[in-house]
Design a protein that fits this description.
The protein has 157 residues and is α+β, with helices and mostly antiparallel strands. The protein is built from 3 helices and 12 strands. It has one domain: Pnp Oxidase, Chain A, CATH 2.30.110.10. A hairpin with a 2-residue loop joins strand 9 and strand 10. One of its GO terms (molecular function) is FMN binding.
Length: 157
């Protein structure tokens, strides 16, 4: 199996879109990611996966904290900014919560301290213990086959 085939197969799994943020010396750093999952309810734990080449890796190691911002369908440009596909910073607004910067108007902001980490292949898996959660109503931004997408609700007749 070649890398492209594996990548295409993983693209068949539709995901939500998140931006992972952390604060270092008063500056907010972020990256778009869809490798995120819930791990445990008691204690509340989540997992993110960061490429060994990503700048965010050293930043999370240094801060010991991160936030997962689950984006709404109106926040595609925010995702593109933190994926390096845009430079329009005007569309991003942060707020502080428990000493962490989170993206305003996200469907959910999940504030974590690093509970543990594990190197797995060319990524580091960070498990975060959830300290706080902010929830809002709305529809999620989705990602499928390498493209942004929106969920549609079928009409029942």
């Amino acid at each position: 199996m070649d890398t492209r085939t594996f990548r295409n197969a993983m693209g068949k799994f539709a995901t939500g879109v998140t931006v992972i943020t952390t604060d270092i010396d008063g500056e907010v750093h972020g990256m778009t990611a869809n490798a995120f999952m819930s791990v445990s309810l008691n204690p509340p734990l989540v997992l993110i996966s960061i490429d060994e080449k990503a700048k965010m890796l050293s930043k999370i190691k240094k801060s010991g904290r991160f936030s997962v911002n689950i984006l709404s369908e109106e926040q595609q440009e925010v995702s593109m900014l933190f994926a390096g596909q845009s430079s329009d910073k005007e569309n991003v607004s942060f707020e502080k919560r428990n000493g962490s910067s989170v993206i305003r108007e996200s469907l959910a902001n999940i504030i974590c301290t690093v509970y543990g980490s594990q190197i797995a292949g060319d990524h580091t898996l960070f498990i975060g213990e959830v300290e706080d959660v902010i929830l809002r109503d709305g529809k999620p931004l989705a990602f499928y086959e390498g493209k942004y997408s929106r969920l549609t609700t079928p009409q029942l007749t």
